[in-house]
Amino acid sequence: MSKLLEFINGQQDALLSDLENLVNLDTPTSSKALVDQAMQIVITRFQELLGGSVESIPQEKYGNQVKLCLGEGSGSGQILLIAHMDTVWPEGETAKRPFRQEGQRLYGPGIFDMKCGLLQGLYAMYAVVSQYKLTKKMVLFINTDEEVGSPSSRKWIEEEALKSDAVFVLEPALGPLGKLKTSRKGVGRFALEIEGVPAHSGINHSEGVNALQELAHQILYLQGLTDYSKGSTVNVGIASGGTAVNVVSGQARAELDLRIESMDEAERLSRHILNVSPVLANTKLHMRGGIIRPPMEQAMSRKLFASAQAIAGELGFSLEETATGGASDGNFTAALNIPTLDGLGAVGHGAHALDEYVELDSISLRCALLAHLIKEQMEELN
Q1: Where is the Peptidase M20 dimerisation domain (predicted)?
Q2: How far is it, in rounded angstroms, from Cα 115 to Cα 27?
Q3: pLDDT value at position 310?
Q4: pLDDT in tens, 243-268
Q5: Gap between the Cα atoms of 221 and 240, Å rounded
Q6: Which regions in the chain score pLDDT beneath 70?
Q7: In this structure, are residues 121 and 53 in contact, taking their beta carbons and an 8 Å threshold?
Q8: Which fold has domain 186-293?
Q9: CATH homologous superfamily of domain 3-185+295-379?
Q10: What are the CA-CA distances from residue 208 to residues 104, 174, 204, 205, 281 (Å)?
Q11: Cβ contacts of residue 188 below 8 Å, gap of 6+?
Q12: Alpha helix (H) ranges present in the chain?
């Protein structure tokens, strides 16, 4: 057994106690107070275990972003770990569904996405520091608005990534085999506003131009931009309009989601979307939006995944990679050409679902995998 895995096995009870405490705290993205309260628990544990430095980046709308740092002055390199504290669950959810264990599965709001992964990162750092001398700085960046696209944290994530030799993202692994995510689609978000010509539907129907009719044309066009052969999808997820059933609608709107595998495809489809033209005379279209997360392309994960696969073999389990249509903060770091490996958090199922769980017997192994990856990066020349 590796020294790191042996150490982590010895810390599993403490990790599980911390996990229960953290899961039983509500941390909806929308509540700065609750997220800050939970963050303080993690900061306290970090200082108890590791005694490193803490930098809090104040935020007005969301919880404060936090950097937990070790090895200041240990060399010119840096290793960045990324986790997020916020969850999709509202205040009061943990009172309804507190942390519980059923057999070898652990349940609770946010346990899989991604409170277990956050603590695995903390304990992996603890294991490395306890067994080896640091030759590079380590930073665990804990984001507080990931579930809404990281609007306030993206700047700080990118700033830390540009200082780093490698980025390890502690989002959950995929599927029962715990596959690592070596590529992710990028995300675009757009909103369309349509102006028609309102009129009384019984008296002056012919004088009106129905914005909802124009919207129907635009939905068909936009949905038709989907190209599965290129991994590109356009989804009009919200559509509305009109004011009354007896009025030719003078306004309509829609919101759409774009997913793409490459920046070339992102630019191509963004042009098509932003330059939509009206079909009906006397209607006006106003489209706004753009790419909010660039794609995480596989080239940025290739070397790190090969290392992870070899380490997993030494630890006694097999490891596979996968692509996913979902996005994470790893999209930002990979787009900066920083080697990035994602899905290094918990193995389980049910992100954003009521049956969200983590496989108990995977926690120490995955924590050890991350610790070995950190150690390996410590040994690499800058």
Answers
A1: 183-273
A2: 10
A3: 98
A4: 999 999 999 999 999 999 999 999 99
A5: 17
A6: 73-75, 381-382
A7: no
A8: Alpha-Beta Plaits (3.30.70)
A9: Zn peptidases (3.40.630.10)
A10: 64, 51, 7, 6, 11
A11: 257, 258, 259, 260, 266, 269, 270, 273, 289, 290, 291, 292
A12: 3-10, 12-23, 32-49, 93-96, 116-131, 154-161, 211-223, 263-274, 302-315, 330-335, 363-379
Model pLDDT, residue 238: 98
Instruction: Taking the CA atoms of 244, 247, 250 and 252 in sequence, report the sign of the dihedral they define.
Output: positive
- 18 CB-contact burial (10 Å; exposed 0-12 / middle 13-18 / buried 19+): buried
Among all chains, which residue has been given the structure tokens 């700033």?
A: 159
- Residue at token pair 């070790």: 70
Over the stretch 328-380, which tens digit does the pLDDT of each residue have? 999 999 999 999 999 999 999 999 999 999 999 999 999 999 999 999 999 88
Give φ, ψ of 188 to 5 degrees: -120, 145
Q: Specify the pLDDT at position 73.
A: 66
Segments of the chain assigned to CATH 3.30.70.360: 186-293
CATH 3.40.630.10 segments of the chain: 3-185+295-379
Helix (H, G, I), strand (E, B), or coil: what is residue 130?
A: helix
- DSSP states along 303-351: HHHHHHHHHHHHHT----EEEES---THHHHHHTT--EEB--S--EE-T
* DSSP type of residue 124: H
pLDDT confidence of residue 76:
77
